[in-house]
Specification:
- The protein has 296 residues and is mainly alpha-helical.
- It is 59% helix and 0% strand.
- The protein has twelve helices and no strands.
Length: 296
């Protein structure tokens, strides 16, 4: 990966010439990554002070809320430094071309934390040999694809909604506004990483349901009436004889569907090999589905 300036993350490949580089470094309105990381020390001091005050007054809700906020920030600082710190290989402002970035860039806590978490999740897959691309390149690919799909007119830029893409890429939401930012490929990668780390319960409708109802002793979907005997349907011999051909036909269709599903699953490689391979597998799957419909 090309070298980047530690303050703005501008790569030399993105600049037209030395004069353009000097102008951007002096006049850029992008926030500094180094300046952000320097705030970690003062934040840690504030956290220690809040902890001391909470021990003196444990029933103070305002102090507890402040301590929770500072503790969350400490965790975010740690993750951001792990991915984008002095020894990191990446910079948030390299996620897309400089002309497509928001005026302040992406060196703020929330977008950097979101990116850092996504990179960390994908690094798990890369270490296990299940992701052939570099994690940051994979995210860049999906961000650029999503941004391009949302542009209306030639010459438009995703500056106004790039942060929303970074926040929501890979999410699964029922919100109509958030649906436009979903990306199925990124979502599948996130779920695969969660499964490998035994954190799959953190995703999906069950998580949303628990979050919405809070802690409840009796869940709403439990039966309200118990000890109710279900009436078992009785079949006559005539019903069995009449349904035998239909049952055999249905069983044959199920067996055929299972064989097709196994064939598709075996045809999918466990390592991601790039966009061309992904498109080729999609086209092959579509041809198989079309042939199956013709056979039916």
């Amino acid at each position: 990966m090309a070298a980047f300036h530690p303050e703005t993350g501008i790569t030399h490949l993105c600049l037209d010439d030395e004069e353009d580089q000097a102008t951007l470094l002096k006049e850029s309105s992008w926030d500094s990554l180094n300046a952000f990381l320097e705030r970690e020390g003062p934040e840690a001091v504030l956290k220690q002070e809040a902890q001391a005050l909470c021990r003196l007054d444990p029933n103070n809700e305002a102090l507890a809320k402040k301590l929770k906020h500072l503790s969350d920030n400490a965790s975010k600082f740690k993750k951001i430094r792990e991915i984008f710190g002095e020894c990191g290989r990446y910079h948030p402002n390299q996620i897309i071309g400089k002309r497509c970035l928001p005026p302040q860039g992406l060196c703020q806590m929330e977008p950097m934390y979101k990116l850092a978490c996504k990179i960390s999740d994908l690094q798990c897959l890369q270490n296990q040999g299940k992701l052939g691309m570099d994690p940051f390149d994979f995210i860049r690919w999906r961000v650029i694809k999503k941004a391009a799909s949302m542009l209306v007119m030639p010459g438009d830029t995703p500056k106004s909604f790039l942060r929303s893409i970074v926040y929501r890429l890979g999410d699964d939401t029922n919100d109509l506004k958030g649906k436009g930012y979903e990306d199925t490929v990124m979502r599948q990668a996130a779920l695969l990483s969660a499964r490998e780390r035994h954190l799959l319960n953190s995703y999906g409708p069950k998580k949303k349901f628990i979050k919405s109802v809070g802690r409840q002793t009796h869940l709403p979907f439990r039966p309200a009436i118990r000890n109710v005997q279900r009436q078992t349907p009785r079949l006559s011999s005539a019903d069995v004889r009449n349904s035998a051909p239909k049952a055999s036909t249905a069983q044959a269709r199920r067996n055929e569907a299972q064989r097709a599903q196994r064939a598709r699953r075996n045809a999918v490689p466990s390592v991601y090999n790039g966009v061309n391979d992904y498109r080729a597998r999609q086209q092959q799957r579509q041809r198989q589905q079309a042939q199956q419909r013709e056979n039916e």
